Amino acid sequence: MSESLDRQRRFFAEEIQAVCNLRTAGLVEALAMVPREAFLPPGPWTVRAEGDYGEPPRQTPDGDPRHVYHNISVAIDPARMLFNGAPSVVAMCIDRLALKAGQSVLHVGTGHGYYTALMAEMVGSGGRVDGIEVDPGLAETSRVNLARWRHADVRQGTGVDGLAEDAYDAILVNAGMTHPHEAWLSALKAGGRIAVPLTFTVPQMGSIGKGAIALLTRDPTGEPFSARVIGMVAIYSAVGIRDEGLNAKLLDAYKRGPWPSFTRLRRDAHDESPGCWLHGGTFCLSA
């Protein structure tokens, strides 16, 4: 069974590489090495796939771990609709962060820690991964699951408090946000990257938001940030750090066109103009 599962995991890694055009060899290797089932509750599992749109989640036939080595989201808490996200989305975001050995990473929203572990594999023991999870139970589960990666640490929190300036080479935000938080922009080193979903919510969607995933890259000189869209997503909303005023502005922005037009992130004070896709108090995503 172990040899068969190793082959399945290797095929899974190569399939995600092909489907998502992954360019980071270390990520493909991590997908082939890290056991996804170790970061999930016991099977059978509740799962979702792209073809399930509009349908309720379905159940795997049994607890054979080979079932989770597909491009599917797997529930870690079905009652709350909390999922270990689809690799075609989360692994793609990690790939665009272009992680290297020895780098420092912040992961906001660790869940059970699977994608945290992938990044820990990528940066190696000479690097560092700081995970933050708002849910105390999930944070504790992450800590247990990540015990073998001694350079990965998880704490409970909202993900914006206690961050040092110029602390991270990369930041992955694994929850829907109304804006790139100022704490993350300040914590990113020159030349670093942030992947953050910019999602709007409406009452009938509950805790799930929809929107674009933005990749923000800090110039090697420190300012400014370039910005581009790398995908679309439906994702669980961040808790306690969204801005309802910006949620309304985001919804209006997406009504103007579903694919955002921004190319940079500005932090200088300026008046809102037609070139501002999303204008906030301390930032502006602008064309």
Characterization of the model:
The structure is a single chain. The chain is α/β, with parallel strands linked by helices and 287 residues long. The protein has helices at 2-20, 25-33, 87-97, 114-123, 136-145, 182-187, 244-256; strands at 46-48, 58-59, 73-77, 82-84, 104-108, 128-133, 152-156, 168-173, 188-200, 208-218, 225-236, 264-266, 276-279, 284-286. The protein has one domain: Rossmann fold, CATH 3.40.50.150. The protein has 7 helices and 14 strands. Helix 1 (2-20) packs antiparallel against helix 2 (25-33) and helix 2 (25-33) crosses helix 4 (114-123). The chain is globular, with a radius of gyration of 18 Å. The termini are far apart.
Biggest β-sheet strands, sense, barrel: 10 strands, mixed
Strand arrangement within the widest β-sheet reads: 7-6-5-8-9-10-11-12-14-13
Bin the strand percentage. Answer: 25-35%
Taking all Cα atoms into account, the compactness measure Rg is 18 Å
Number of domains: 1
| Low-confidence runs | none
* Number of alpha- plus pi-helical segments: 7
**What distance separates the N and C termini?**
53 Å
The name of the CATH superfamily reads Vaccinia Virus protein VP39
SSE class: alpha/beta
